[in-house]
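anyone seen this seq b4? input:
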Amino acid sequence: MFAESLLALSTIDVKPVETGLSAPTSVVAAPNGTLFVTEKQGRIIKIPKTGKPKTWFRINVSDDEERGLLSMVRIDAKRFYAAYTDGKGALQVSRFTKGGGQRKIIRIPHPQYANHNGGQLQLHKGLLYISTGDGGGSGDPFGAAERLSDLRGKILRIDPTCGSKRYCIPAANPRAGSPVIAYGLRNPWRFSIDTVTDEIWIGDVGQNEVEEIDRMRVGAPLTDFGWSCFEGRRSYNPDRCAGRDVTAPVLTYGRSEGESVTGGYVYRGSKVPKLRGWYVFGDFVSGRLWAYKDGTRKRIGRADGVTSFGVDQRGELLLTTIGGRVLRITK
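predicted toks r here
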């Protein structure tokens, strides 16, 4: 029976929803099925169920190297949060209202290097979750990921709806007064929250040898994923290991399979029944797509240059590629 499930996973198709976009970085869906796609250069493209795509919003961003408009999450028909790099390279998270301007929520300086920005946003039970990279360069030259006073190399959780303040720290956060719920991350470019299990799944891009997927519960204590003491499960910098209680990744893979993990989602849709409950993710460089569950990883397809995953209004999986495509995983 278990073998049959794995066999079924190998037959999954990836079909185009839209092509011809410019370096899309994320995709989200409205309840009516309309899709919104962020492009690296700062545009948000609206893709209706019928009709042609059109520019819906523009944000001024810096877009050299890994910088740009990184992701968005909808609040309602006119309001959304977006993560992007500003003119000085900082990671800026803001709330925008179509036709009504911008409210800046949190800004994380990132001046020295243009890589390792993180930049994924998720809304869960009214709270905003944010991923941040370690500040770039090689080997975390700032020691940012392990230092709790530095917001780089982290997963953050904030309440962005607390009156006149830009944000508040939720009472449930592990450390009083701190937005940090997880640290020791290199570049958690994409993460998701499984609302069925209340688990956070994090794709953390590796340094020289290992890509990793990390997992934690929404209500977990403060969690250290080990960078740069470890790269995956391998020792990387022993000088940065003292006093750390590291949570190992749930899975890793090496350079023979890929070089830049793109975290995905646990599938909760209905069109691919054998995939239900499996975590689906990919690799930007190799284009491989995998499904993972209970210690088993299975290759299920290919999408070259996969930059992000998303879900539509019915829980079906979408993905974007750097070459300008929005794709849907189907039978």
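DSSP finds one helix and 27 strands in the chain. Confidence is low (pLDDT under 50) at residues 1-8. kinda curious what u guys think
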